[in-house]
Specification:
The complex is a heterotrimer of chains A (245), B (218) and C (197). In chain A, 78% of the residues lie in helices and 0% in strands. Chain A is mostly helical. Chain C has one domain: Rossmann fold. In chain C, helix 2 packs parallel to helix 4. Classes of the chains: A mainly alpha (245), B mainly alpha (218), C alpha/beta (197). Chain C: It is an enzyme of class 3 (hydrolase).
């Protein structure tokens, strides 16, 4: 059985992901189309929230990925710092813009949902605020990647930032909880059955979640492939310059 | 390390500006607030602790990029990195010097400025205490941000973008101490949490900052 | 004491500049690095000093034994000559800075702020710092820039005295200092496409 680290070899990675990207892309399309149609047209309106509740099919998966994309970046950064696999650093870089987009989707759908429910587009609710803070962390991370020319230096510095940022993100989460007790409804998805949304909403939500997850994987793989190609191009240019000199 | 702190202090005193500019900025921002929100004490007093904390935080931010940039420009950072002191110690000393030249004077100046904004009495005391406990964390986080961006040509703006979100926990707890103090409530809990944040920063951030510096120096 | 590099590859920004470099310098000897600007002398010196990581190969002894002197000497204009020197001396665990002041004829300038020194005096101060590190191996990058003939001679004397005490110096320079030791033309080790991988 080959070790998982063999996939850290860029060539190997490229070969394997060539088939994985369309597979995950197809799965994402299937789940999202199916799940959203199911959720939007074939579930009843909530007795209290009416049709507005259906935004959870976008809101919850986006929020889920917004956090987990950061978590993935954290793991990838650790792998880069410890084992120095370039693919890992590039994957962290590739995930960031997707994570920030997901955070933005979660914030916007949250606002759209909050308007009819709470009567306001924005409230300084701890969970909303935490997402806003997460959004700022993503912005900083992406800007730092953009500001440094040397790819290895950029990977090192952004990894350290990701580590420290993660600690402070968790800290901010608790600080914000401390600062304002919120009006957000409890977690939509948890193992704890009483907290859960009703089954009739739950299953299409799971399908949508799977779809978002597959979309995320496909996009990260695709972007990582692009980053690897960009890096190879960079190397080719350097070689050319060396050959000329 | 004590040597390094003393050297930075001597430099700050002789170059002038070090103390003065941050304090002047703090004063000006505080003076601008009533022009923005109106002169009534009833309106100013409730927001005074938060406004003063934010003003102090921004004043702290002003001088952050000097922590490493000057030493980088004149080559001293290279020599420090090759000297027989750990880079972690260098960042800690640098942050300490930054705190002594900005955080400490800001904390002491905050109480009189609280009077300007009509803060009720015990609030001044707790504002000063919260700043004294919280600003070391600001300097350490700032040193980390400065270490991340020291190699960049226009790192200043980027550093603000990186550092300000990291300031959130300190700001939340610090301003809460001052607010509770001003409202006559017990500020013990947020003060303990603020102290915990600062101690955590002292314990962890020099390592992260030193790692970033090593990378930036390459 | 002996400075040895085996199969050393150094570079900047992920790009190797010099590849498969091997040399040894015995105690009491100097190694003069030659080569045009941008040929990798600075990168090699910074790698020896431990400021950059070598891409391959090894150097012994480690950077703890090496004092690095770069283009910029890290002296603070607002501090006096003596304050600057004693800061670096104490950082390296030494106290007495008079030998270093004397070696570069800085005794009479010791209470002058570094910003009021002439270019040549400032350079001398930067070089005097090497003496207070107490380290046996000096890695110097263009140390004689902005020194006139007299000061260059004084610098050569100081290096010679250092070598006479069993020290080692690796110096990137274009001028002939008349030191005992080899010359290394780094051009010969320029990284080729193969080294690039």
């Amino acid at each position: 059985m080959p070790s998982i680290w063999t996939f850290a070899n860029p060539t190997r990675f490229m070969a394997v992901t060539q088939r994985l990207v369309p597979a995950f892309g197809g799965l994402a399309a299937l789940c999202l189309i199916g799940g959203l149609i199911w959720g939007f047209f074939f579930t009843p309106d909530d007795y209290r929230q009416g049709a507005t509740v259906k935004i959870i099919y976008l809101h919850v998966p986006a929020a889920f990925l917004a956090i987990n994309a950061w978590f993935m970046m954290l793991v990838a950064s650790l792998i880069w710092l410890i084992r120095r696999h370039h693919v890992s650093a590039l994957a962290a870089r590739a995930a960031a813009p997707i994570g920030v987009t997901m955070t933005l989707i979660a914030l916007v759908t949250g606002a759209v949902w909050g308007q009819p429910m709470w009567g306001t587009w924005w409230a300084w609710d701890p969970r909303l605020t935490s997402f806003l803070i997460l959004f700022l962390f993503y912005l900083g991370y992406i800007s730092l990647w953009g500001a440094i020319d040397d790819p290895d230096t950029a990977a090192d510095l952004t990894s350290v930032l990701c580590l420290v940022g993660s600690v402070f993100a968790v800290l901010s989460r608790y600080a914000v909880n401390f600062w304002n007790q919120g009006l957000h409804q409890g977690a939509s998805l948890s193992l704890d059955a009483e907290e859960n949304v009703a089954d009739v909403f739950y299953y299409p939500l799971l399908v949508c979640l799977a779809g978002f997850l597959a979309l995320f994987v496909a996009l990260v793989l695709l972007r990582t492939r692009t980053e690897i190609r960009a890096r190879r191009l960079h190397v080719l240019r350097l070689r050319e310059r060396m050959a000329d000199a | 390390m004590i040597r390094l702190i003393l050297r930075d202090l001597a430099l700050a005193v002789r170059a002038g500006g070090g103390f003065g500019l941050g304090l002047a900025f703090f004063l000006i921002v505080t003076v601008l607030v009533p022009f923005g929100v109106g002169p009534e004490t009833a309106r100013l007093a409730p927001i005074a602790p938060g406004v003063l904390w934010i003003a102090a935080l921004l004043a702290c931010l002003l001088s952050l990029d000097r922590i490493f940039a000057i030493d980088r420009e004149d080559g001293a950072l290279d020599l420090l990195a090759t000297a027989p002191v750990p880079l972690e110690g260098v960042t800690l000393a640098k942050a300490a010097a930054h705190w002594l030249t900005t955080g400490l004077p800001l904390s002491l100046a905050a109480a009189p400025l609280g009077v300007l904004l009509g803060m009720p009495w015990p609030g001044h005391l707790w504002l000063t205490v919260s700043l004294l406990v919280g600003t070391p964390a600001l300097s350490l986080i700032g040193a980390f941000g400065a270490a991340l961006t020291v190699g960049l040509k226009r790192g200043g703006l980027l550093m603000s973008l990186l550092v300000l979100p990291l300031y959130i926990p300190t700001l939340v707890f610090g301003a809460d101490v001052a607010r509770r103090g001003a409202d006559g409530l017990d500020p013990g809990t947020p003060l303990a949490l603020l102290g915990a944040v600062t101690l955590g920063c002292v314990a962890g951030l020099p390592f992260a900052a030193a790692a970033a510096l090593r990378t930036s120096l390459r | 004491m002996r400075l040895e590099a085996r199969g050393l590859t150094v570079g900047r920004g992920g790009l190797p500049v010099l590849a498969d470099l091997s040399f040894a310098v015995e105690a009491g000897h100097a190694l003069i690095l030659r080569g045009p600007n941008g040929s990798g002398k600075t990168t090699l010196l910074r790698t020896l000093a431990g400021l950059q990581r070598a891409y391959a190969g090894e150097v012994s002894p480690g950077s703890d034994a090496i004092a690095y002197g770069g283009h910029r000497d890290g002296m603070k204009g607002q501090l006096t000559v003596a304050e600057n020197l004693s800061f670096w001396a104490r950082l390296h665990g030494l106290r007495d800075i008079t030998p270093a002041l004397r070696a570069f004829a800085l005794e009479r300038l010791d209470d002058r702020q570094a910003q009021h020194l002439s270019a040549g005096q400032a350079r001398r101060l930067g070089l005097a710092r090497l003496l207070v590190t107490g380290r046996p191996i000096w890695c110097l990058d263009e140390p004689t820039v902005s020194l006139d003939a007299e000061n260059t001679g004084r610098f050569a004397d100081m290096v010679r005295a250092h070598l006479g005490d069993g020290g080692i110096a690796v110096i990137a320079t274009h001028i002939d200092l008349g030191l005992q030791g080899d010359t290394l033309d780094v051009q010969r080790f320029r990284a080729t496409l193969e080294a690039f991988g």
